[in-house]
Amino acid sequence: MVYIYTFIEVDKNIKNDSLSDFMNEMTFIPHAFGYQCNNPGAVCSDRITGDFELICIVGGESRITIDSTLYICSAGDAVLIPPFTMHKIQTPASNPHENYWIHFDLNPFHMQKNFITAILGDTGNKLHPGLTKELLALYQLLENEYQCERSGRMHFVSSILVQIIIEVLRLKNSPSLTKNTIISMHPSEAEIVRKSLDFIQDNLLSPIVLANIANYLHISESYLFKSFSVIMQMPPNQFIQFVKMKKAEQLLKSTHHSIKEISEMLGFSSPYYFSNVYKK
Amino acid sequence: MVYIYTFIEVDKNIKNDSLSDFMNEMTFIPHAFGYQCNNPGAVCSDRITGDFELICIVGGESRITIDSTLYICSAGDAVLIPPFTMHKIQTPASNPHENYWIHFDLNPFHMQKNFITAILGDTGNKLHPGLTKELLALYQLLENEYQCERSGRMHFVSSILVQIIIEVLRLKNSPSLTKNTIISMHPSEAEIVRKSLDFIQDNLLSPIVLANIANYLHISESYLFKSFSVIMQMPPNQFIQFVKMKKAEQLLKSTHHSIKEISEMLGFSSPYYFSNVYKK
Questions:
Q1: Which of B9, B140, B242 to mutate to test the interface with A (most CBs of A within 10 A)?
Q2: Angstrom distances, CA of residue B238 to CA of A52, A195, B210
Q3: CA separation for the pair B110, B121 (Å, rounded)
Q4: Which of residues 170-199 of B touch A (CB under 8 A)?
Q5: CATH number, position A114
């Protein structure tokens, strides 16, 4: 068999870079998007959600309290609210804010902490990407894509969110930062975490303590604690709480059980854990 | 411990859809991008590459021959050239084409055939998405992003490519098509293919025949052939050829071996397999 052709090796004029590598590690699942304006004196009282929320202020004044810290924000500021973080959003009647907000999930879970550090560094929850024409163009594209409810919308919105995040990270000049935040994993530790996650998922309706998982994996509690904390950037008990709250959120939506019943089903230690739960 | 807050379950105003599900299955790795114009009488002779190439014609006339079929293309047409497909691109001196072209890889491999079917259906390699303002805006964004060589470029370009593909699939009105093209996999067949891929990867520098893999997996050749062909949408021998050519491409780039040496290293059955290889 003789082929008569030229085998071209394409000159790769698009090369890899560390920020692309970092972004490659993560998937963003957008849940909700909106543009808020003309709502003088609006208040979102103290609340938590299970999602990330990125708010980009384009006009007026926004007073956002996150974990007891008040951030006074104006055009060009942005805030990132991580999942299960208590926050309150207010705007003065005299100077109402205009903002774009987007709620999303980030997978895999172990990259959440890396992501937060890359975006926020150590400056609290507020950042100042500015109102660049690139960022505004992306928000306008997002608004348009959101409004025209065409097929592929979720994936398209996800790709715009990726672009917004890249722009924000560029404006923060953070490629060096992103490098530092990448956690290296040892294969055996990764395996421990993988099995722990399966165990937690399978036993979500029981009270789970560290000893249960350690016994199941035939390892010591201290080794489990260390491996888990290194990879997940969060101690196991905090993670279990997190997953149970995610599950509670889901059960509240999909069933008619009361808060008290769900609290009992998930083996929450204290009936006061949710003091007040609203179902939309 | 008593928390005083409102637990908000975010109203998910962005819902999933079948085109998003389809796109979620794939990752696009852009290799090269360009805008060609003012090149009257240009010819790319018969050639193959290891990449996908998507060409979007925005002006003039393009004469593109793919696997012996000539497509006469004008503004609003596009062509998709799958990997390792012989093609030739010409444009008349009197009416030179203007086009955007992008070379990319698509992972995972078993989705390549699905992708080709979704984009092309059964109309050959040419399609007519038209020159909509959305598509042109995306190509202009792509040109701008490509030229400003900022960090995160590769991932940003990849996200624009995703958006272009969603637009093309929308214009083809193909959400129903994409549903039909998704191949369902049986877990044991998927496992056979996974192990076959590992075996092929590990033995790339030897001649590999079906019997080698079947013996390694302790299954019959016919079962291997069937499972592989169903999932990969390509018989194993064709796939092995494909991977070897990819490897050859890589070796040509990264080493100083001659074509004949590489042909021998990879155990190609015929020294005529590559008749003519250019190294850029």
A1: B9
A2: 45, 38, 11
A3: 17
A4: 170, 175
A5: 2.60.120.280
Please give the angle made by the CA atoms of B229, B235 and B239, to the nearest 5 degrees.
115
Domain boundary at A181, A210, A244, which? A181
Q: Residue B229 sits in a domain of what CATH number?
A: 1.10.10.60
Give the pLDDT confidence of A217-256 residue by residue, as tens digits: 999 998 888 888 877 767 888 878 777 877 777 777 778 8
**Which residues in chain B land under pLDDT 50?**
1-4, 174-184, 271, 275-280
User: Which residue range(s) make up the domain with A162?
Assistant: 18-181
* Minimum CA–CA partner of B164 in chain A: A156
> Running DSSP on this structure, what letter comes out for residue A110?
G
B14 touches chain A (CB under 8 A): yes
CB contact under 8 A, B163 and A159: yes
Flag whether A13 is in a domain: no
B182: which 2 tokens? 């998704």
pLDDT of residue B272: 53
How many separate domains does chain B show? 2
Of B181, B205, B235, which marks where a domain is finished?
B181
Residues of A in contact with B86 (CB under 8 A): 3, 5
Q: Is residue B129 part of a domain?
A: yes
What's the pLDDT at B38? 78
